[in-house]
């Protein structure tokens, strides 16, 4: 179970039928969702028998139809508090209270871990977890749920917010709606705005957004960002240094390619220094990746912190390939030796540009020396904590702003979050992070709605 990870998800019985099923069991049951991977939950008896016959040995059916199918919610203890990872059953659609009256707005949400949001007066109704929209059945479920929410909340939004990525299906859905005002909201701006809103913040904040991918205003893939701003606008002050992703999405599914992309982008021909890593990659594949990056063909620029985790995991040889999103980063967190206080070096250029070249070089040298992966994982995390804190201190000294919002899926990493919260507090900052809504993309729709409101004034 969980294939070597130290944490397990536990589902407690919450319906009478659960108690009846479990009453005769003397041990926990290992269970999975009633759906094919990447597809919405199956909620109809006939559909269940047709779709899941090759998976399930038997079916427990009922004569009461399920009107609104909804996933189980997932929460985790972070920094001593319950934080929602997936917001669904038991949480949605409980309204989020807004600090002011908003017009009726539909925020269409992101492509992955989608939720959408409807506003009415001083309330925002964030939907349950919808899922990844690239799957056709999930997208159809998304359309049905928007219609359902508009019906039950009697909503007729005239303002529609969407992500800036032109190929996101949520963006294309927004653009298909007639007679509405469209407002594009940058992915990471929405992350920080949602964190501000949940924590009741109105004034300027320093925003740190760290995740896997978000379409930037320069057309590149952001994900390790430092902002200054409020609901009205954000200024991008700094970010992780851009590197190439050889093969685009292929680099996400095969983190060793992302590690190669980092090393070649940052060190060029000096990549030969990393031969014990590169020798594990076929020569033809290395040549192809070099050509892609040299010519900028299917090798987009990214500043993603999530991709940096992927690269580190590959260099430690604990996540060269992955089967699900975030697996390499999860495995890297799972092996940390929490007794280690040491860290690696890093460089900061142009005041707020974080260059991870020293970090990766020293990480590789530790691997060559045979340093244990738990020690290296701890030093990697400690380095990020130190680097993010130092940039916040520089921004705070230059602007006088002492409030920090942390958001993005990377901050679901308990060790990283707790470490940076302590460092920021020790340096006189008030630090906030999402708890009632997911720090991952599941909370973005709320931030989109608030940003669209101010953009429409």
Question: How would you characterize the overall build of this protein?
Answer:
The chain has a domain at 243-432: ATPase, nucleotide binding domain (Nucleotidyltransferase, domain 5, 2-Layer Sandwich), CATH 3.30.420.40. It is globular and about 65 Å long. The mean pLDDT is 95. Helix 7 crosses helix 9 (283-295). The protein has 15 helices and 16 strands. Helix 14 links the parallel strand 15 and strand 16 (430-432). 37% of the residues lie in helices and 19% in strands. It is α/β, with parallel strands linked by helices and 457 residues long.
| Integer average pLDDT | 95
Strand content: 15-25%
Q: Give me the secondary-structure category.
A: alpha/beta
Count of helical stretches? 15
The total of beta strands comes to: 16
Tell me the layout of helices and strands.
Layout: H1 16-22, H2 45-52, E1 74-78, E2 81-86, E3 96-102, E4 105-107, E5 117-126, H3 136-152, E6 159-163, H4 169-175, E7 181-185, H5 187-198, E8 205-215, E9 221-229, E10 234-240, E11 243-244, H6 249-253, H7 255-267, H8 275-278, H9 283-295, E12 301-302, H10 305-315, H11 327-334, E13 347-349, E14 353-355, H12 357-369, H13 373-399, E15 403-407, H14 414-426, E16 430-432, H15 444-455
Parallel strand pairs: 4-6, 6-7, 8-15, 10-14, 15-16
Antiparallel strand pairs: 1-2, 3-5, 4-5, 8-9, 9-10, 11-12, 13-14
Q: Brief description of this entry?
A:
The protein has 457 residues and is of the alpha/beta class. It has a domain at 243-432: ATPase, nucleotide binding domain (Nucleotidyltransferase, domain 5), CATH 3.30.420.40.
